[in-house]
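Quick one, tokens below:
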């Protein structure tokens, strides 16, 4: 199912008001969500078959509060508290200001609020102290992962995600 940014923004702003079964499932998943740790013990993220970056993003959802998939300098997919939303082609947010010529060995970090504000996606509403981590395994594909973990734990957690993402892209 594809989502418009307006529809996704409305959903996340009113998630407690829905009783439809689809919405109820998203609401329950969001209410019960707690990011998992222990990525160093996870190999399923990159086990075959990995059918593109969308599947990697789906496999990352249990480990981060929210995240974005960037393809060809546009936000094409969003996950939030365990649910993945594919954006309609006309609703994909430009993100060329987030991508850059870097090696797959680099991870860029910035306050989540600053990243989401630049994309006009503040409705993802991370915690005030959350950070976003950009992992760009290829020039055309990037992942922005948002975490509320404190630095000592977040750095190890993101490092493991970075290693697994690059392994999926055969680095």
């Amino acid at each position: 199912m594809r989502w418009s940014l307006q529809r996704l923004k409305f959903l996340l702003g009113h998630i407690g008001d829905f009783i439809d079964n689809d919405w109820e499932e998203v609401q329950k998943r969001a209410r019960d969500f707690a990011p998992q740790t222990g990525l160093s013990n996870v190999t399923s993220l990159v086990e075959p078959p990995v059918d593109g970056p969308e599947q990697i993003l789906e496999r990352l959802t249990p480990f981060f509060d929210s995240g974005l998939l960037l393809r060809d300098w546009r936000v094409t997919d969003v996950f939030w508290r365990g649910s993945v939303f594919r954006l309609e082609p006309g609703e994909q947010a430009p993100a060329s200001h987030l991508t850059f010529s870097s090696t797959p060995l680099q991870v860029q970090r910035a306050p989540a609020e600053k990243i989401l504000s630049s994309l006009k996606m503040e409705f993802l509403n991370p915690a005030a102290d959350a950070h976003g981590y950009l992992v760009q395994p290829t020039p055309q594909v990037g992942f922005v992962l948002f975490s509320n973990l404190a630095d000592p734990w977040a750095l190890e957690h993101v490092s493991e995600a970075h290693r697994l993402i690059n392994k999926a892209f055969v680095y």
